[in-house]
Amino acid sequence: MHYVGKELNEECAVFGIWGHEKAAKLAYYGLHSMQHRGQEGAGIASTDGKALYDHKGLGLVNDVFDNETLDALDKGFAAIGHVRYSTQGGNIYANVQPLVFRSQKDSLSVAHNGNLVNAHKLKGELEERGSIFQTTSDTEVIAHLIKRDYADNFLESVKHALSIIKGAYALTMLTEHQMIAALDPHGLRPLSLGKLGDAWVVASETCAFDLIGAKYVRDVKPGEIIVIDNEGLHSDFFTTRTEPAICSMEYIYFSRPDSNIQGINVHAARKNLGRMLAQEAPVEADVVTGVPDSSISAAIGYAEATGIPYELGMIKNRYVGRTFIQPSQELREQGVKMKLSAVRAIVEGKRVVMVDDSIVRGTTSRRIVGMLRDAGATEVHVRISSPPITHPCFYGIDTSTSSELIASTHSVEDIREMIGADSLVYLSVEGMQKAIGRDPAMKNCGQCMACFTGKYPTEIYPDTVLPHEKELLV
């Protein structure tokens, strides 16, 4: 089987701010701080209390917005924003969010982080009732459900819609008169609430608060819906059937190290993962190095626990684009070399421990091991700060088929041989839970571990799964 590509990619990040005269510009900075969560599209919608204004486009935040477009958006006091990595719906302009829906009564803008597992089913039902969809994004289903039931009570309509959709969703919504933030009953995606002076702010990661000078207040709770308007903030719940299960990969890979998720700093959690990995998988070596950027914290933790020096054994070129878009395998190989290079003076003649956060398809791990050997490493011992990823994710990560996952069809020893390492050890599920440090009294410590265990926190609908994948859900 041939494995291509490297990184796990998540769908997006959301941001919202209410009660600030520079709302759109602050949304721009908030999105910029969360650019790591999506690089394919960006958008901002704002309001002045009379109308919604929006601008979006394909590309990075800096590519989509300039001073002129931000000035045009900064006509009011509230804005929501979004950066996107396409998992469902494809990378086309129409799918870039926030999606804006205009009607005679009022308008609605929606930004969504996550993925709905019953979107296909709901879309079919809505189309039978006359809905016409303008995008292939599952986010549009949410707006249609709200508008379908919208009578005199907009909030009740939103609650009803949220009770129907299933899967992962951290939402920001904007009308002319209010901003809404909501989180699915499992809290699969992070969403935090902050304050900037008198303005309220919501964001997928707390690093956005730090950039704009906002103060973290608390995390949005699973099943919670927050309404912010000129009268202040109002909290309610659209369901009492909640069971926290935040995505484990937020701590392992996705979130920025300076972000805090439900009281736990991401950098500290990753260092603990590295320390636990050192306990479970020690090895005699001369240097420890991490694969930039998300694995450096774990590598530092591993080095501290073992006493083996941490060294900068690999350098990342931050000015190279994503390698998988290259049109041939030869060019993809060259792209990886441009993006990452070994430091010969550090690894030559050394036994190297290479710490990485995950192995998805195996191709990049093989290239990095080969790169270290070419630079003179005498041994390369690979240590992974997460358990093997054996099952697809249906909640907004681009691993929707098991055929993409090398650990679903190969043993650890097989993978070791395929990537050319002298040894390979993954962190155990129990070690991962203990290292992250979430409440052990909660089921699975309040984490979703479906990609490691195959036990999904929600029902997975048949239309969500490819036919040959259905046996994995048994």
Would you mind describing this structure in some detail?
The chain is an alpha+beta fold and 474 residues long. It has two domains: 12-242, Glutamine Phosphoribosylpyrophosphate, subunit 1, domain 1, CATH 3.60.20; 268-437, Rossmann fold (3-Layer(aba) Sandwich). Helices cover 30% and strands 24% of the residues. The strands form six sheets. Strands 3-2-4-1-10-9-11 form a seven-stranded antiparallel β-sheet. Helix 4 (119-128) packs across helix 5 (139-149). The protein is globular and about 70 Å long.
Main sheet overview: 7 strands, antiparallel
Instruction: Please give the CATH class of the largest domain.
Output: Alpha Beta
Helix content: 25-40%
Rg, rounded, reads: 22 Å
Mean pLDDT: 90
The secondary structure category is alpha+beta
- Per CATH, which architecture of the largest domain? 4-Layer Sandwich
Give the distance, in angstroms, between the N- and C-terminal Cα atoms.
Answer: 24 Å
Number of structural domains? 2
Q: Quick one: how many beta strands?
A: 23
CATH-defined topology of the largest domain: Glutamine Phosphoribosylpyrophosphate, subunit 1, domain 1
EC number: 2.4.2.14
Pathway: Purine metabolism; IMP biosynthesis via de novo pathway; N(1)-(5-phospho-D-ribosyl)glycinamide from 5-phospho-alpha-D-ribose 1-diphosphate: step 1/2
Function: Catalyzes the formation of phosphoribosylamine from phosphoribosylpyrophosphate (PRPP) and glutamine.
Organism: Sporolactobacillus inulinus CASD
